[in-house]
Amino acid sequence: QSVIHLEDIRKSYFIGKNELPVLKGVTLDILKNEYVALMGPSGSGKSTLMNILGALDTPTSGKYILSGHDVSRMEDNELARIRNQEIGFVFQQFNLMPRLSALENVAVPLIYAGIGKKEREEKARHMLERVGLGDRYKHKPNELSGGQCQRVAIARALVNDPSLILADEPTGNLDTKTSVEIMEIFGRIHASGNTVVLVTHEEDIADHAHRVIRLRDGVMESDKLNPVKSLAH
Ligand code: ADP
Ligand code: ADP
């Protein structure tokens, strides 16, 4: 059962009249409950691919089916709905709203989903407990450490129970010890049945995944199962 089905995805940026091809035909299936690390040199197209997977951007050509929805044919308003309902995105820079408390940040996707205030607060509180921040729900981002901010962002990504969790260098701004803690949370997210795609430059972060896909110059250079992890899977 594919959560992600990509067929010959191409993406070019146009700078004036000049076409810069960035993705040059990516074909790929990711199954339910896979845990995939996406690697590759800077400029190889990882962020571009993640933005397409996350319905933040559309491909120039090719087909993208997410959980049965043809995302490559969607208008902006449909893309926004899919983003909110099917995708949880975790960024390197956390992307929290500075004026909102941890609880309010986690509840934002529930506002768009049309859920009432009391239920929003209960769900957001529950998600914060799941990431070990149950006692910090009133704190604002600037009153939290980087690792705690990333936990809030992870809780926000999970709160609508999306079919896909995407993380673009989620430990890129964190020290080693905090990175290990965040990777433990991703491990638990995956163990509870989620599908996870994570971009990283670091081999020891990629070692947490069951499958490692390497991009180079806009094409897939390799796609390998992680032997140790796949046995345990
Ligand atoms: P990362 O390698 O961490 O994914 P970014 O996605 O921020 O880094 O940027 C990757 C490359 O894309 C950089 O070389 C950056 O200069 C370039 N880039 C990002 N956004 C734009 C843009 N809007 N126009 C031109 N180049 C961009
Ligand atoms: P990676 O995440 O692997 O570092 P990116 O997907 O960020 O790679 O970038 C791939 C290429 O696309 C780079 O050459 C970058 O400069 C270019 N690029 C990325 N975003 C833009 C943009 N918005 N406009 C123009 N060029 C871009």
Automatic annotation (TrEMBL):
Recorded GO MF terms: ATP binding; ATP hydrolysis activity; transmembrane transporter activity
PROSITE patterns, sorted: ABC_TRANSPORTER_1, ABC_TRANSPORTER_2
The keyword Secreted belongs to this UniProt entry's keyword annotation: no
Transport recorded as keyword: yes
GO cellular component, as recorded: membrane protein complex; plasma membrane
Keywords annotated in UniProt: ATP-binding, Nucleotide-binding, Transport
UniProt-listed InterPro entries: AAA+_ATPase, ABC_transporter-like_ATP-bd, ABC_transporter-like_CS, ABC_transpr_LolD-like, MacB-like_ATP-bd, P-loop_NTPase
ABC transporter domain span: 4-233
Entry's family note: Belongs to the ABC transporter superfamily. Macrolide exporter (TC 3.A.1.122) family.
The name this protein goes by in its record: ABC transporter ATP-binding protein
Organism: Chitinophaga barathri
